[in-house]
Amino acid sequence: MLAKRVRRDVSIIIPALNEESTIQQTLQQLTVLNPPPHEVIVIDAGSEDETVDRVKTSFELFPQSIKTKIIFSSKRGRSIQMNQGADIATGDILCFLHADTWLPNDAIAIIQKTLTDPKVAAGGFISLMVGANSTRWGISLHNYLKTYYAPLIFKPLSFWKGLRLLFGDQVIFCRRNDFWEFGGFDHKLPIMEDGDLCCKLARKGRIRLVNRIVQSSDRRVARWGAWKATAIYIYIGVLWGIGVDANYLKQFYQDIR
């Protein structure tokens, strides 16, 4: 008797708000993923620029084998938007992608392979921050290291059990059933919703940082400057690690488009 095939369809979920400068490139890159994702869902929270038009134009170029959908959120906030996308997703695996982050062509295969291990509850990639004229090697290295040192310092017991703190530009992925078992993203959190999700999913299994790179826009660092950006990242991380409310921390992390 043939073994029953285990489905591992991947739904890519992208929250968007005024992302006209990046969303088209992100979506175009998804058309060449091999194997392709099961579906791509964009959740727009009231963009006031050309984001929606560019999403629709990009979706027209997708092969018919990839389901596409754009939905509209009446409330802003990545947690809210990503939960709405996850709620209508039909794939067995959820992959949360920022509108300014670009995946390697074999990302779907990497995601599927990582989650074949039942001891792994979630995973993410190494994020390389890039701009038009430079690569932010220093900040990219720090972001890589904090995946390990943050849980080691603030949650050492969980660290030794497999907790790693992944953030949005690392493209977090997990099984849909596990995601909803822990209630998805906390919609009350304006930032650090990704770290919070990792802490919850770590109760289910290890959080895995795969040895592959995704590229993310350096627009925030370009606006702040490398030293200020690093200081803000560390400041927010430390305060969150000791239990400071993320709603208070949001004031230090303004939206930049």
Structure description:
- The chain has 257 residues and is α/β, with parallel strands linked by helices.
- The chain has a single domain, classed as Spore Coat Polysaccharide Biosynthesis Protein SpsA, Chain A (Alpha-Beta Complex).
- 39% of the residues lie in helices and 20% in strands.
- The protein contains 11 helices and 8 strands.
- An 8-stranded mixed sheet has the order 3-2-1-4-7-6-8-5, sandwiched between helices.
- Strand 1, helix 1 (23-30) and strand 2 (39-44) form a beta-alpha-beta unit.
- Helix 1 (23-30) runs parallel beside helix 2 and helix 5 packs parallel to helix 10.
- The radius of gyration is 17 Å and the shape is globular.
- It is found in: Cell membrane.
- Belongs to the glycosyltransferase 2 family. CrtQ subfamily.
- Keywords: Cell membrane, Glycosyltransferase, Membrane, Transferase, Transmembrane, Transmembrane helix.
What topology emerges from the helices and strands here?
Layout (H helix, E strand, L loop, with lengths): L9 E7 L6 H8 L8 E6 L6 H9 L7 E6 L5 H11 L4 E4 L4 E2 L4 H8 L5 E11 L6 H18 L1 H5 L12 E3 H6 L11 H9 L4 E12 L1 H6 L1 H16 L4 H4 L8
Parallel strand pairs: 1-2, 1-4, 2-3, 6-8
Antiparallel strand pairs: 4-7, 5-8, 6-7
Structure keywords:
eight-stranded mixed sheet; disordered N terminus; globular; Spore Coat Polysaccharide Biosynthesis Protein SpsA, Chain A
What does this entry show, briefly?
InterPro entries: Glyco_trans_2-like, Nucleotide-diphossugar_trans, Trfase_2_rSAM/seldom_assoc. This protein has 257 residues and is of the alpha/beta class. The protein is built from eleven helices and eight strands.
